[in-house]
Every structure is written in C-alpha cells, then in structure tokens.
Amino acid sequence: MTLLIIGIAVFLGIHLLPTVGGWREKLVGRLGLNGYKVLFSLLSIASFALLVYGFARAPLIQVWSPPSWTRWVAIVLMLPAFIFLVAAYVPGQIKAKLKHPFLVAIKTWALAHLIANGDLASIILFASFLAYAVYDRITLKRRQETGLITVPATGPARNDVIAAVLGVVLYLVFLVWLHPLLIGTAPLAR
Questions:
Q1: DSSP sequence for 48-77
Q2: What is d(CA 109, CA 100) in angstroms, rounded to the nearest whole number?
C-alpha cells in the first residue's frame, strides 16, 4: 500500500504544481520551457508506473462490499467519460460546454470506480483522483482570471460527432479487450 500512496502523492503532486502560485513559472525560468516539459513528463511517467505497480501489489482489504448492480453503474458512467476524454482533444460544443472535459472525464471515471469497488486500495486511488480533479477545476477558474489558462475555443458540430464516435469505439475496445488485459478484470464477465 505504501508504494501506491507514494505513487499517487508524487503523480498528483506533480500535476498540482501548476496550480500553486508561481512554481511552474519559477521552474520554467530555471529549466526553460522544454526542460520543464521533459522533467514534468519523466516524473509523471515514473510516478505513474510506481502508482500502477503499487496498486497491483496492494493487499486486498475490503472496506465495503458493493452490491453487484454497482458494476453496471460504472459501466454506464464510463461511456460518457470516454466521450469527454476524446472531446478534450477535439474542440466542439462538448468541449465548450464542459470547458475542461478532461477533468470531467477524470471525475466521472473516479466516481464510477468508487461506486463499483470497495477495497481500500481502490478507494484511496479513485478518491485521490476525484479530489484532484475537483481541486484542479476550482483552481482553473482562478488561473483563467489571471490569464494563465485560456477558455477553450469552440469548433464545428462535426467535431462533437467525431468525439462521440471515437469515444464509443475507445470505450468498447477498453471494456471488452483492454480492461481485462491491462487491469486484470473483465467488467462484463463478473
């Protein structure tokens, strides 16, 4: 469990750095923009690997036993999460309405998995990411007011169709093949 907690703390700490007054700018001033991006990326990858390894090695400590129907709630919630994820990179009305669809995708993903999983490692992991996404969304409002973050531009309506179609395809691929392969559990086979 210790490796999981360290992985989460480092991964989310790195991603919270830009929200703390002036730290990003100081690091960019010292390392240059490219140096900052390289360091940010390397630390993100390393801490994510530690997080995944820590989660896989964490002992199974059941805090609560979710009813079997909660997995269907998670399966349903994950569909819009994938659409929001794709919409974050395809400017359209979805992106304009949600403003920051990537954070909405993280919140939806975390909530869905909190509903369906009752073990301690899952609760720590998904609650941490949910808290991070909520905090980051709140601080984005402040950063927009100071001009550090710009409001996303809207795009043509066809981009929403693209986001929806790609989101559904990605969702199905992950649900049927990648979740069992990468995570080790088949959501449809319980």
A1: HHHHHHHHHHS---BS----TTHHHHHHHH
A2: 15
**Total tally of structural domains belonging to the chain:** 2
Q: How far apart are CA 11 and CA 126, in angstroms?
A: 13
Asked if 51 and 135 sit in the same domain, the reply is no
Q: Are 48 and 1 in contact (CB under 8 A)?
A: no
SS3 state at 171: helix
Q: Please count the helices (runs of H) and the strands (runs of E) in the chain.
A: 7, 0
168 and 136 within one domain = yes
pLDDT, one tens digit per residue, over 101-120 is 999 999 999 999 999 999 99
Q: Which two tokens stand for residue 116?
A: 């369906």
Segment 135-140 long-range contacts (CB within 8 Å, at least 24 positions apart): 135/16, 135/19, 136/15, 136/16, 136/19, 136/103, 137/100, 137/103, 137/107, 139/19, 140/99, 140/100, 140/103
Largest CA distance in the chain: 52
Half-sphere exposure of 28 (CA within 13 A, CB side): 9
pLDDT tens profile 31-44: 998 999 999 999 99
Which one is predicted more confidently, 163 or 145?
A: 163
pTM for the whole thing?
0.88
- Taking the CA atoms of residue 109, residue 104, residue 158 and residue 91 in that order, the dihedral angle to the nearest 10 degrees is -130
**Coil, strand or helix at 176:** helix
